[in-house]
Amino acid sequence: LEQALNGFSTNIKAFKLEKWLTQILFSIINELTSHTSIIILLANYICHIASFSVKCFCPLILYFIENQPIKRGNLIGKMIHDFFAEDINQLPKEAIQLFVELVLLIRIGTKNGNDKFVSIFRHFDIPPIYEAALYIKKYKAALMLFEDYYCNVDLITQEEVLNDPSYNMSLKEAYEGIEDKDLVFGLPIVPKLDYGIDILKNNNLKWGE
After folding, report:
1. Taking a C-beta distance cutoff of 8 angstroms, is the pair 135, 143 a contact?
2. Which of 14, 95, 135, 205 is spaced 20 to 30 A from 24 at the CA atom?
3. Closest by alpha carbon to 108, among 171, 116, 54?
């Protein structure tokens, strides 16, 4: 797996999605053959239908994490971290959707108290992940990750965050995405003309109304 992930940051931008996914999956399948011989059939299927690599990526990654030592699972954590460290504008949206889904599935394992998933999730840099979720319009997922992150930062960091304009911008985008105007109006008012115009547009209002 280490060899398959060598140059990962370059591969995800230089090659088609199915190509680098297949490379990773074949490495994982190779490591899992001692657990079940049936998995070889999966490799054969991927060889003939490359697009199948997208469908089986998340389930196979989760199976790998569950059946390997924590140290091996942390390789997956590093892969995910490196993915979201990239400029999302240079990544295919299908890949972003896939990795956001993977993060959410690992989060479920974390909430269930699985130590292997906890070990991976706690090393994630969450802000780039919820920003990526916003980018692909997964607003509910973004909001969930956003709340997870900021509910667990210390009080000093919370005060710094509340004074950061990007915090309210991200939150506003998520609220608008789920079409909850009440939540949008609950955000701190920004004393700028652009902000006022934006609020009017969101409520189909005009000046003087």
Report:
1. no
2. 135
3. 116
